[in-house]
Amino acid sequence: MNDFVKNELEKNRLYFEEQLRSFCSCKPDAIPERLWQSMTYSLLAGGKRLRPVLCLQAAESVGGIREKVLSMAIALEMVHTASLIHDDLPAMDNDSLRRGKPTNHIIFGDALAILAGDALLAWAFQYPLSKLSEEGFLSSSIIHALSVFAEAIGPFGICGGQVLDTDPESFEPSPLFVKKIALQKTAILIKSAVVTGAILGGASSKQISAFENYGNHLGLAFQIVDDILDVTSTAEELGKTPGKDAKQEKTTFVTQFGIEESRKMALQESEEAAAVISSIGKNTEFFQELALSLAERSR
Ligand code: GRG
Questions:
Q1: Structural domain boundaries enclosing 36
Q2: Integer CA distances (angstroms), 101 to 97, 172, 186, 229, in order
Q3: pLDDT digits (tens, 9 = 90+) for 61-93
Q4: What is the 132 CA–ligand 1 centroid distance (Å)?
Q5: Per the structure, how many domains does the chain have?
Q6: 219 CB under 6 A from ligand 1?
Q7: Which among 64, 89, 267, 282 is least buried, having the fewest CB atoms inside 10 angstroms?
Q8: Domain at 124, CATH number
Q9: Atom of ligand 1 nearest to the CA of 98
Q10: 4: helix, coil or strand?
Q11: What's the whole-model pTM score?
């Protein structure tokens, strides 16, 4: 990863981390203490913060102000975290390690983990709805951003993708099935991060459509590398259990195409992401470089 991307990512990651910590430091009275502990345990457990940082960067790149878009970035991390809590449950991936720590249900039990995920999911709409109005955004922009966000989460998005990924009866015997899963399980939320940031930052429709295209390619590259790392990396590096895909006999890019071909595919998706975003001209260097460096990530 070149220094420019590293510095930009780190700058917005640190900003986001600090804001999230401050957000999690004041528990609203009505939220039961144990539910709050369970929600904030996973929210503050670390992670790369890719989705919120993408949202903040996209808003800034089209002339928006990151502070005004912060609630959308927090909402993206709330939903991503909720999906990880649910994904780790015994009824789904049944994992005990996430972000280098015991998973939510290991600490709080299944019932609280389910409720923490549900609570984060609903708050991910309640919170930006009120904050973005306070920040003075037009109702039309808020509705546009939150409908893109909703589409990425429900049956059209990660819930649908998770079914394709985990339900044996949904398996489709086609080499394209793995791409379909990745687009719906992973790329769609990454896409919604850049698109909601762009919408709230005041992007034109041409810029929004370039970010849509970019998000799909970036998300695919991200998932392909995720599949490769599951085979090649360690628990220390990943902060989660490696080797799960093979154990659960999942269809992945690696099982479908092998590691070397998967690496080529990740690079190709990254290059396409960089190319589509460069088409909108200025302030896209970060997004181009990020896409190219994601193909080489190690965590
Ligand atoms: C809406 C609560 C809710 C659930 C929806 C469980 C589920 C249904 C979806 C899960 C989908 C899933 C686990 C997709 C994998 C996405 C992915 C590659 C996650 C890893 O993301 P990183 O590497 O994680 O960005 P960190 O920890 O760094 O944030």
A1: 3-296
A2: 5, 34, 22, 18
A3: 999 999 999 999 999 999 999 999 999 999 999
A4: 25
A5: 1
A6: no
A7: 282
A8: 1.10.600.10
A9: 27
A10: helix
A11: 0.97
